[in-house]
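User: Before I run my own analysis I want an independent prediction to cross-check against. Here's the chain; please return only the structure tokens and, at the end, one sentence I can use as a sanity check.
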Amino acid sequence: ITHDSRLGKRQMNQDRLGWAHTDDALLLVLCDGMGGHRHGEIAAQIVVDHCLRVFRHAARPRLDDPRRFLSDSLLDAHWAINNYASLRAIPLDDAPRTTCVACVIQDGLATIAHTGDSRAYLVRNGQTRTRTYDHSRVQMLIDAGELSEEQAQTHPQRNLVITCLGGDI
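Assistant: Structure tokens:
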């Protein structure tokens, strides 16, 4: 497992990632805290920590249902972020938020869950294939045939995601 995270033009890197494994299963989690909201880095860390903790408890040595594990873990992490905000009197519309992509590899299969614009790719034989598509306003316009991939690169709403963990969306 290798990773690379770059600060870019931001003042703070809100990327968080983690992995855990047993002899029969591997969990990979990557989150990108949303900078337009307070404490995006905390939201991202809450999700990573929660998913790893639940995996270590549930994978003995494999998960009964990887799809259900991912669904339940991410939903619980969403509520954990909102609980964090509530305990600190942060209004829900300004609660910490993060995008996420998580993958369980077990029995030779990769099960992926994601929200927002964090992506999963499959790289095989020198070819890169997208395995997830952004939950974003721009992707909706592309899917509807109202916007081209080229137009999306400079669209004013190119960073607007329509789903995330934390907050009220």
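Sanity check: The mean pLDDT is 93.
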